[in-house]
Amino acid sequence: MIDHTHDIALKSWVESANGHPDFPIQNLPLGIFSAGDTPRPGVAIGDLILDLTAAKALFDLVPEGQTLNAFMALGKGPRQALRLRLVEILREGSPHRAVVETCLHKASDCILHLPFHIGDYTDFYVGIHHAQNVGALFRPDNPLLPNYRHLPIGYHGRASSVVASGVDVRRPHGQTKAPDSDTPVFGPSRRLDYELELGVWIGPGNDLGQPVDIYAAADQVAGFCLLNDWSARDIQAWEYQPLGPFLAKNFASTVSSWVITPEALMPFRVAQAAREADDPPPMPYLWSENDQAEGGLNLELEVSLLTAQMRAQGLPPHKLAQSNSRHMYWTVAQMIAHHTVGGCNLRPGDLLGTGTLSGPEAGMHGSLLEASHGGKVPVVLPTGETRTFLQDGDKVILRARGMRDGFASIGFGECRGKVVG
Amino acid sequence: MIDHTHDIALKSWVESANGHPDFPIQNLPLGIFSAGDTPRPGVAIGDLILDLTAAKALFDLVPEGQTLNAFMALGKGPRQALRLRLVEILREGSPHRAVVETCLHKASDCILHLPFHIGDYTDFYVGIHHAQNVGALFRPDNPLLPNYRHLPIGYHGRASSVVASGVDVRRPHGQTKAPDSDTPVFGPSRRLDYELELGVWIGPGNDLGQPVDIYAAADQVAGFCLLNDWSARDIQAWEYQPLGPFLAKNFASTVSSWVITPEALMPFRVAQAAREADDPPPMPYLWSENDQAEGGLNLELEVSLLTAQMRAQGLPPHKLAQSNSRHMYWTVAQMIAHHTVGGCNLRPGDLLGTGTLSGPEAGMHGSLLEASHGGKVPVVLPTGETRTFLQDGDKVILRARGMRDGFASIGFGECRGKVVG
What we know:
Chain A folds into 2 domains: 4-113, SH3 type barrels (Roll); 121-420, Fumarylacetoacetase-like, C-terminal domain (Fumarylacetoacetate hydrolase, domain 2), CATH 3.90.850.10. In chain A, 16% of the residues lie in helices and 25% in strands. Chain A has helices at 69-73, 76-90, 97-101, 128-138, 233-239, 289-294, 308-312, 332-340, 368-371, and strands at 30-34, 40-45, 48-51, 104-106, 111-113, 121-124, 154-156, 162-164, 169-170, 173-176, 185-188, 192-193, 196-202, 221-228, 231-232, 253-255, 269-270, 296-297, 300-306, 318-324, 351-353, 379-380, 386-387, 395-402, 410-411, 415-420. A 7-stranded mixed sheet of chain A has the order 7-6-21-13-14-16-8, with helices on one face. In chain A, strands 9, 19, 20, 24, 25 and 26 form a 6-stranded mixed sheet that branches. Chain A is globular, with a radius of gyration of 21 Å. In chain A, 54% of the residues are buried. The mean pLDDT of chain A is 97. The interface between A and B is large, with 60 and 60 residues. Chains A, B: This is fumarylacetoacetase. Chains A, B: Pathway: Amino-acid degradation; L-phenylalanine degradation; acetoacetate and fumarate from L-phenylalanine: step 6/6.
């Protein structure tokens, strides 16, 4: 429900928040930060971070500890109450300004940490254009497998190697086999790639054996982030039969550090639009009228690259692709209902990835595998450098932003990681 | 190294330990138990459990808290010191008997819990006969894929739904599609199966980006358990392309509750023997002379079934299959070296499964899928009942035991679970 907290006329006495592309007073994302001391919960407002522990006396309930797990386990009630109170104390004219000013840090002086202890990480495959593009590289006549339009395909990822934005990513070594060779070789991956995804943080969770109904699924969402599911395509091609990706993906996955709440994203909810008229209807456990009407998300997604040479020349990151989260064939609620329908339990702080969210055209590819047509067509950069896959020193930056006429823009901040050898 | 703690002549003043098929003084497995109160660390000795918290004053260091994670993170030193001290205080003639007697509980009065908080659960596929049997059902001419003999195939499982022995397992509902139908249907799985596996608990773990060398891999092992990786074959067949098993496996995995230490299993170490002469040699990161010489395990494995009708008639569980952990094509050290070679980090309490450990002949199948030849040949039980797959009310019991002339037998206790509708 869109309420006064989304009003574009709402201003903050934190000057940098007004017109901020990511963190205006209409966003108020939660995270875990530190300023040379103990990691603790905070809220982004403009170029500053509000220390919730220091400002605790102003609230009925704030997150405590070094993760958001316990607070988000309480569900939407406390989260929404926190948002309303944050708007009260941060809006222009608030009588609390003097107190709150003592609880602010410059974001540029702080480190952001993983916002949750992640129990399990699951990655889906709901970006239909990515599934078609990748499928076409392997099966030109039949890119989408028969199950794709009946259920949200997903698999279990590795929780231990999920890292916060800014952590360097080491190029993995592993076994690869050239198509024209009989035997594999060992060495560094030569086809290292990024994947542009949205991440979903789970709030309350469900008990083992108790599926989450599609009508209740949205209430499981604590918030959203960006997710770069780094992938070693050459390792993947050799290892993935018959049980799926393993070492090709478990060396690192990077998430953006701010948790963008469902409340902040309300203005960007749209009808689920990726299903076509003659597609099979979703089974009842995957269908609710409300979810079809507003379970989609209209967020601009972007991936940029900054090479070592570009940095040396003082060039800015180069935009490789722009896409949108409307290209999800299955909604977040459908992902949750499907994940739990057999009884699997989700726990607070679990992470779900959408899978790569590519658009239907050139310039909208969420991975280099797609942009380079399987490594055949190099991407040309402003320096004249070319890439089919990532080189050491390359920094990949993902961004997401909700933009809608009459509303403030709501950004996710950066999800960035540099490849090191 | 085999030392005096393995001496078959060693007796305990706990009478039930002497000649106990699972828990003689030569075993001394660790676990988390409760007796109507707070879960805490204990040691199985015969029919009793030693409360390590109550007996703490007798030790330099004991596990504390409600999991073994922190203690096992310390590595083999503290674990081996604990074993030596346990033998001192529990052996016949120990001067500590009077004190220790006040710290014992009847195991039958206690509940056993999960011994670890599990960060991540990975399941491998190293049982070569299982891989061949299952492969043959899908690809009669080419049961083993080309990568199988080059690397230990594995995938990420679900940590949240790993349960302790004794917890009922709810039959999952999900999408399935009959081979002769164009569209899937929704309902309870009709092809519910067990999988007979060994589980490996990780001790110290490694940092992200720092692979575990094959020579150091054995030191990562905190202990062993049995693992039943329950599988819904019909859900699996429809969902698993292209990213592997998901809902078919994530509704429950059962582990036996006692952690059998590497020290207790020393007498049952054998040469790695499942590789044949003309198989490809393991790559250097998977090969150490020591691991080839004694990285194998000679443990008898067994799966039994107790149906509701058998229980009603007072019949004992019926042995469905007997196998052995020698049928692992890759050793535990090779699994660990491979898992981390790309930089993936393991954490204390992580669980690795071996995959189903079937033997080469009939009567040695670690799953009903194999025993019933893909559901075509029913297994006949003593009651005259038949099974292709599991029915509601069926209780599946896994056991493992090391047996060797001149040594005490070392058992794992039960890994049991009952299917409920």
